[in-house]
Design goal:
The protein has two domains: 41-277, Beta-lactamase (3-Layer(aba) Sandwich), CATH 3.40.710.10; 285-386, Sandwich (Peptidoglycan synthesis regulatory factor (PBP3), Domain 2), CATH 2.60.410. Strands 2-1-9-8-7 form a five-stranded antiparallel β-sheet, sandwiched between helices. A five-stranded antiparallel β-sheet has the order 11-12-16-15-14. Strands 3-4 form a two-stranded antiparallel sheet. With 388 residues, the chain is of the alpha+beta class. The relative contact order is 0.16. It has helices at residues 3-21, 69-81, 95-99, 115-123, 128-139, 142-155, 178-191, 217-220, 260-277, 371-386; strands at 41-45, 52-56, 90-92, 112-114, 203-206, 209-212, 224-232, 236-245, 248-257, 278-284, 289-294, 302-306, 311-316, 323-329, 342-350, 353-362. It has ten helices and 16 strands. Helix 4 (115-123) crosses helix 5 (128-139) and helix 5 (128-139) crosses helix 6 (142-155). It catalyses: Preferential cleavage: (Ac)2-L-Lys-D-Ala-|-D-Ala. Also transpeptidation of peptidyl-alanyl moieties that are N-acyl substituents of D-alanine. Pathway: Cell wall biogenesis; peptidoglycan biosynthesis. Belongs to the peptidase S11 family.
Length: 388
């Protein structure tokens, strides 16, 4: 690495270390083992950083029951976001939708219902009839909608998920995992925040029938604002819940508990543990300049480097002062440079464990310099490398 680059890297490392660590190093933070959870599988995730705080059998394929409807709702929300449908669109109710068994919104065959009411029916009431009606409206048939569900699952990284229907009714080839469902919840929260408040609504009335949200944590914990319950004989009692306290949010998933009370109790234990001992920190902002790097042979001698996305970490509470960071730039950076070109990496670690390993990118463009500039820089670079 060129001497000038070394010096600049060291200076940035020092700046970042001071920003992240402060002047006084704190003592090690002591954290107890996670609580025991009575469920077939479970996971606790920070949706900002993606870090898993606790898990057991989180990649085991299990029937997801009505947790399936999170994907049904997500696809509808995507269609809304992209302008292909609107909340006020009226959806014709087919005989198939009307006759779908299980939990219901009580829509009537031959009528038309707004997308907004059907979406609330899916999210709040867990209506199987509303799920089928929306699937048919979006894709023409429930089967075609299922194809979209499985494609979307792969795009979200849900590698151990297979959908057969839009409702979660039992089927041998219909399965998911606690981890995959946490990924889906993370996408719902992050991708379409304008619709996320629907998951916190406690009641919805349609056809003069008022039904409560089955997520009892909405009444017991003010920080809980979603997401979905599920239950079949095959799946047991399942729950995906999310809560936010101050600037930290967690997603908790539990599958295969013994009762509706048990799923709420086990998820509450997971959330309380996460908030008690961990916190989410944003270390770098999107577009934040970390440093200026030396450019050779360009119209300018410096290029601004940083990150194009926010970077979060999940750390034990009180351990921010122990974070350590380094920036390692390419030894020689030559023009032309385009916005987004990778020029090195930034790493942040805690007690020897790397929490962040992200590329640092060019934030500005540096075109190639003229012939004389390129020749002059080549001569200077030769001597810099000769004496490094």
């Amino acid at each position: 690495m060129a001497l000038t680059t070394v010096l600049r890297s060291l200076s940035v490392v020092l700046v970042l270390a001071l920003a992240l660590a402060g002047k006084v190093m704190a003592q090690s933070v002591l954290i107890p083992s996670p609580p025991q959870i009575a469920g077939s599988s479970y996971v606790l995730m920070d949706p900002k950083s993606g870090r898993i705080i606790m898990e057991e059998n989180s990649n085991e394929r299990l029937p997801p029951a009505s947790l399936t409807k999170m994907m049904t709702a997500y696809i509808v929300e995507r269609e809304l976001d992209e302008g292909r449908i609107s909340m006020s669109d009226m959806v014709p109710i087919s005989v198939k939708a009307w006759k779908t068994e299980g939990s219901r919104t009580f829509v009537q065959e031959g009528t038309e219902v707004s997308v907004e009411d059907l979406l609330k029916g899916v999210i709040i009431q867990s209506g199987n009839d509303a799920s089928v009606a929306l699937a048919e409206f979006v894709a023409g048939s429930e089967g075609a909608f299922v194809d979209i569900m499985n494609q979307q699952a792969q795009l979200l990284g849900m590698k151990d998920t297979s959908f057969v229907n839009a409702t979660g009714l039992p089927s041998e080839d219909h399965y998911s995992t606690a981890y995959d469902l946490a990924l889906l919840a993370r996408a719902i929260i992050n991708d379409y925040p304008e619709n996320y408040p629907l998951y916190a609504e406690k009641h919805f009335t349609y056809n003069n029938i008022r039904q409560p949200n089955r997520n009892s944590l909405l009444w017991r914990d003010d920080s809980v604002d979603g997401l979905k319950t599920g239950h079949t004989e095959e799946a047991g009692y399942c729950l995906v819940a999310s809560a936010k306290r101050e600037d930290t949010r967690f997603i908790a998933v539990v599958m295969g508990t013994s009762s509706s009370q048990a799923r709420a109790q086990e998820v509450q234990k997971m959330l309380n543990y996460g908030f008690r001992y961990y916190e989410s920190e944003r270390l770098f902002r999107s577009g934040q300049e970390l440093m200026e790097a030396r450019i050779w042979g360009g119209q300018a001698d410096q290029v601004s480097v940083g990150l194009t996305e926010d970077v979060f970490v999940t750390i034990p509470r009180g351990s921010r002062n122990q974070l350590e960071s380094t920036v390692d730039l390419d030894s020689v950076i030559k023009a032309p440079i385009n916005v987004g070109d990778e020029l090195g990496r930034v790493k942040v670690s805690l007690s020897g464990t790397v929490l962040v390993d992200e590329p640092v990118l060019a934030l500005t463009e540096v075109p190639e310099g003229g012939l004389f500039k390129r020749l002059w820089d080549a001569i200077k670079l030769f001597f810099v490398q000769l004496f490094q």
